[in-house]
Design brief:
Strand content: under 5%
Order of helices and strands: HHHHHHHHHHEEEHHHHHHHHHHHHH
Distance between the termini: 63 Å
Structural class: mainly alpha
Shape: globular
Strand order of the largest sheet: 1-3-2
Number of strands: 3
CATH architecture of the largest domain: Orthogonal Bundle
Bound molecules: zinc ion
Number of helices: 23
Number of domains: 2
Largest sheet: 3 strands, mixed
Length: 502
């Protein structure tokens, strides 16, 4: 059995090597590659994707997993070996349904679509990407069809990212959350708008980058195993547990963009950096789900990075970095500025309170595209309508409408956006547990110390990689199922104080 387990590991590590090489090509595509490289790059990533897929669905892996079943059953459920076999079997069963030629075609298509989007968005030209997006929808539906027996066609796509969840589960949680959020947004936006102009002055790029790096170094992001580069749409990527990179973009007329995206991506990266090194190269060496991953980025970005206590420590340093811009701006004014709640057009710029409404719009539109009740042709208009209804704002163009997010132009339609809001909910839930275990965390944050929080997260969440499902992890960490109350309580306390709500 030991020999079979070793053979399984060797095969899985080879697959991971191919995927990591493809991830490096993709990282390069989004950072340094000249546009002329796009076509060949698409082909190269498709080749690697196809090879990895072929190796993963090799019947020899299925045979090994079958042979190892009794060994797995003899081990405790949460032992490393049993977990490796269990999670590998899930990965195998998900992959075996998808033909390698489909993976190659879709990957190739995605690379072309992404490149077209990087040109279409600045040109405000939805028609340039429309035929590609129509094909993406076909591919996404086809991918779901490889997993028949669903209730909603989005179910298989959601299951890939947030294993164990269905469209109906997500819709039910989103409805509860929406019912709580809408009155808070209403109460806040009926007040005088906050003055956040202090953030919109000239802030030189290099100084912004330096300050962001200083913050995440204090968080515990390990620069021996990471680096930061510039891109269009910030992301984290991993080539091994020893090389976990983040990207950001800087706007010199907006201090918040790079700073908070840096904190966000560092949260994703620290999660991966905290995974048990023994899992290297196996399916256990990743986050549990997109929701749990996002809970870690949002925790460091928002719950920590936009808290009053955090800035009591860091604001004097920020003022010293930017004396002409912030020298005469009080901590109170700055704290209110970085937590301004307003009805806005851009998801990535949205505040903590309205952010989830942006996500729900995308989630609902995806559901409609997938079930055929909305066509790509009508998507830009549907987008504008939803923004008018839900957020009371109208985008002047598609650039800030349907073209604003990269996701539909580089991945599947469906299965991606729900993770953001599930992540927000889980961030509040997990943070409540961390505080229960270590009430001193709040005071440490006031002093720019993050070790207790980081260690708690590493012990309770990071080290396990994807050993547990979201539901299992949440039960272990919080003693109960996924629930919205702690997150809602967090929002009500923070914004109730900021906006003097009852
Ligand atoms: Zn994220």
């Amino acid at each position: 059995m030991e020999k079979k387990l070793q053979e399984l590991k060797t095969r899985l590590i080879e697959i991971d090597d191919l995927n990591s090489a493809a991830a490096l090509l993709s990282w390069d595509q989004s950072t340094y590659m000249p546009p002329g490289g796009a076509e060949a790059r698409g082909r190269q990533m498709a080749t690697l994707g196809k090879l990895a897929q072929e190796k993963l669905v090799d019947p020899a892996i299925g045979k090994l997993l079958d042979d190892l079943r009794s060994f797995e059953d003899s081990l405790p459920y949460d032992s490393d070996d049993a977990s490796l076999i269990r999670v590998s079997r899930r990965t195998f069963e998900q992959a075996v349904n998808i033909p390698p030629s489909f993976v190659a075609d879709f990957t190739n298509h995605n690379a072309l679509s992404y490149q077209a989007w990087t040109e279409a968005r600045p040109a405000n030209d939805f028609n340039k990407v429309r035929p590609l997006l129509e094909k993406t929808l076909d591919y996404s539906r086809q991918k779901a069809e490889y997993f028949p027996g669903y209730s909603h066609i989005a179910d298989p796509l959601i299951n890939f990212a947030d294993y164990g969840m269905k469209a109906s589960d997500v819709s039910a949680i989103f409805k509860q959350l929406r019912d709580q959020l809408v009155p808070i947004v209403k109460a806040i936006t009926s007040q005088q708008p906050t003055d956040d102009s202090c953030l919109r002055q000239f802030y030189p790029q290099q100084q912004q980058l330096d300050f962001g790096l200083r913050v995440i170094k204090k968080y515990g992001y390990d620069f021996n195993r990471g680096r930061q580069d510039l891109t269009h749409h910030p992301f984290m990527t991993k080539f091994s547990l020893g090389d976990i990179r983040i990207t950001t973009r800087v706007r010199e007329d907006d201090l918040g963009d790079a700073l908070f995206s840096t904190m966000h991506e560092s949260g994703h990266a620290m999660y991966e950096m905290g995974i048990n090194q023994a899992y290297e190269g196996t399916p256990l060496a990743g986050g549990t789900s997109s929701g749990v991953h996002e809970s870690q980025s949002r925790l460091w970005e928002n719950i920590v990075g936009r808290s009053r206590g955090f800035w009591e420590h860091f604001y004097p340093q920020l003022q010293a970095e930017f004396p002409t811009q912030l020298g005469n701006v009080s901590l109170d004014t700055f704290y209110r500025a970085i937590n301004t709640v307003k009805r806005s057009l851009i998801r990535t710029d949205a505040d903590e309170v309205t952010y989830n409404l942006h996500v729900m719009i995308r989630f609902d539109l995806e559901m409609q595209l997938l079930d055929g009740s909305l066509s790509i042709r009508d998507l830009p208009e549907a987008w504008h309508e939803r923004y008018e209804n839900d957020l009371g704002v109208t985008a002047p163009s598609d650039q800030d409408g349907v073209l604003q997010d990269v996701h539909w132009y580089a991945f599947t339609i469906g299965g991606v956006f729900q993770g953001y809001t599930l992540g927000n909910i889980l961030s509040g839930l997990y943070y409540q547990s961390a505080l229960k275990a270590h009430p001193e965390i709040t005071d440490e944050i006031n002093h720019g110390q993050f070790d207790t929080l980081h260690n708690w997260l590493r012990t309770n969440i990071y080290q396990h990689g994807s050993k547990y499902t979201t539901a299992e992890l949440t039960e272990r960490v919080t003693g109960g199922p996924l629930r919205i109350e702690p997150y809602i309580q967090y929002l009500k306390t923070k914004y109730g104080e900021l906006y003097k709500l009852d």
